[in-house]
């Protein structure tokens, strides 16, 4: 299986406490996910992220195709980072690291996603034609929403 990597960095005009509070709450995921993805949390325990937490979603990444996705929060270091990994869903492999670092003007957020797709060569073609672009769209939308929520004050 071929692994792909997506990285993004965003600077947030907020305190580390504010930033961590927002991003460590699964209920806020919907606020920063594109509406056309039909993102909906179907099950989680209502708590801030902790190792072992399971979160279940429904998502429509492609025109009307509704998929179930289950992630586990595998690691959390308070106000520093958390990691989510797919347990069931559209990817063969999904490992997403979220880093938070205080700066003189706010917080530097860094995301590093490693992902793999099923179906061998067909998965590689789908990555080139669809998946890579869709992930870029999702992260661009998230950046725009985070700017609106935190950087336009």
TrEMBL record:
InterPro entries per UniProt: START-like_dom_sf
SUPFAM superfamilies per record: Bet v1-like
Name of this protein: SRPBCC family protein
């Amino acid at each position: 299986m071929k692994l792909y990597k997506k990285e993004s960095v965003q600077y947030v005009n907020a305190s580390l406490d504010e930033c961590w509070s927002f991003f460590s709450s699964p209920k806020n995921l919907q606020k920063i996910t594109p509406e056309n993805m039909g993102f909906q949390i179907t099950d989680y325990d209502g708590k801030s992220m902790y190792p072992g937490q399971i979160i279940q979603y429904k998502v429509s990444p492609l025109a009307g195709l509704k998929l179930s996705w289950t992630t586990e929060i595998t690691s959390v270091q308070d106000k520093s980072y958390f990691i989510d990994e797919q347990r069931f869903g559209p990817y063969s492999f999904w490992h997403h690291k979220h880093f938070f670092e205080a700066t003189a003007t706010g917080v530097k957020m860094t995301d590093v996603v490693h992902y793999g797709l099923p179906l061998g060569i067909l998965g590689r073609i789908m990555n080139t034609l669809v998946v890579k672009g869709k992930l870029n769209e999702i992260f661009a939308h998230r950046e725009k929403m985070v700017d609106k929520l935190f950087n336009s004050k």
